Amino acid sequence: MKRSGCRALLVLSSLSALLCYIFLDPTLYLQDPQPAVPQRNISILLWRWPFGRSYRLDGDKCLEMYNIRRCFLTDNTSTFSTADVVVFHHQELKEGLSALPLHLDRPASQHWVWLSMEPPVNNPNLTPLSGIFNWTMSYRRDADIYIPYGKTVLGGDAQSFQAAPNRSCLVSWVVSRFRPQQDRAAVYRSLKKYIPIQVYGKWNKKPLSNKKLLPTIAKCAFYLSFENSEAKDYISEKLWRNALQAGVVPVVLGPSRATYEAMAPPGSFIHVADFKNTADLAAYLKQVAADRQAYEEFFQWHHTHRIKTFTDWRERLCQICVHFPGLAASRVYQDLESWVHS
């Protein structure tokens, strides 16, 4: 079948999948609902800031910034005995920068949260953590506290978005941690045999500042939103920020097409797995780039949807209070490693 026919089938498939997800899980594409309000004040203690980057927590940040009531954040570890929830980021535990306060008397009603935004391959040494944590906090949709890198919501604004009429390059990719053994490295090496790819990042000594990142990516028609690990639900800022916020078409490599269809704007991406080989993928990218109408089809979602990204750790922490009323009070992860790798 010709690629144009495949494209038509993919569009119909995407529309069918969108309707299916809306009916089966209406939370995926709905407008942001009013935050749930806990029946009492909830105090959340962050044991150590992720990656050493701290934010101001003075005042009632959850209410002031996100309209979430009765939710109070602190990073003052001396409040441990009175905290309702204590959050531990796995990166600091893994690197020995932080230790669990097992020597302290833990209140019976206190809940501990294991937090990670990394795929399983980057979360080693989980066996010692069994039987300790009550809730998980992750990009995974089956986590107790679901905190994605981004999400799609209803309510488009096509007036404020216009696809750039002329692009100075075909494909770009920003990568800092290049590992030759990764799947994305193999796809890149093969794909560049057929089309030029502008590569930026620390890997090839062409880093981009935050100010230059999106404008640079926006010069190209496509962006390689290649995840460093193909894991369940793992769709990072490589899609939400680097591609969608830059206003280009993402070529995705990560979880299944069904996962992207459930989470990304409808008809917004090209999945590597849809092609038999990189030669076919390259030919399709050149074909779409040369066809203005075909290219603009990937931006039709702006008429009906928009995206929201999550970058502030305070917003993520405040989400605990939104989920709090529905969380299982007596849950304990006796085998955290099994859940992470499930």
Automatic annotation (TrEMBL):
SUPFAM superfamilies: UDP-Glycosyltransferase/glycogen phosphorylase (SSF53756)
Predominant localisation class: Golgi
Keywords tagged on the record: Glycoprotein, Glycosyltransferase, Golgi apparatus, Membrane, Signal-anchor, Transferase, Transmembrane, Transmembrane helix
Catalytic reaction(s) noted: an N-acetyl-alpha-neuraminyl-(2->3)-beta-D-galactosyl-(1->4)-N-acetyl-beta-D-glucosaminyl derivative + GDP-beta-L-fucose = an alpha-Neu5Ac-(2->3)-beta-D-Gal-(1->4)-[alpha-L-Fuc-(1->3)]-beta-D-GlcNAc derivative + GDP + H(+)
Domain Fucosyltransferase N-terminal: start-end pairs: 41-150
GO cellular component, one term: Golgi cisterna membrane
Ranges for domain Fucosyltransferase C-terminal: 165-339
Name of the protein this chain belongs to: Fucosyltransferase
Subcellular location(s) per record: Golgi apparatus, Golgi stack membrane; Membrane
GO molecular function: alpha-(1->3)-fucosyltransferase activity
This protein's record includes keyword Transferase: yes
Translocase among keywords: no
InterPro entries tied to this protein: Glyco_tran_10_C (IPR055270), Glyco_tran_10_N (IPR031481), Glyco_trans_10 (IPR001503), GT10-like_C_sf (IPR038577)
PANTHER family given in the database record: ALPHA- 1,3 -FUCOSYLTRANSFERASE, ALPHA-(1,3)-FUCOSYLTRANSFERASE 7
Similarity annotation: Belongs to the glycosyltransferase 10 family.
Superkingdom, taxonomy of origin: Eukaryota
Annotated EC: 2.4.1.-
Pfam families for this protein: Glyco_tran_10_N (PF17039), Glyco_transf_10 (PF00852)
Membrane topology type: Single-pass type II membrane protein; Single-pass membrane protein
Pathway annotation: Protein modification; protein glycosylation
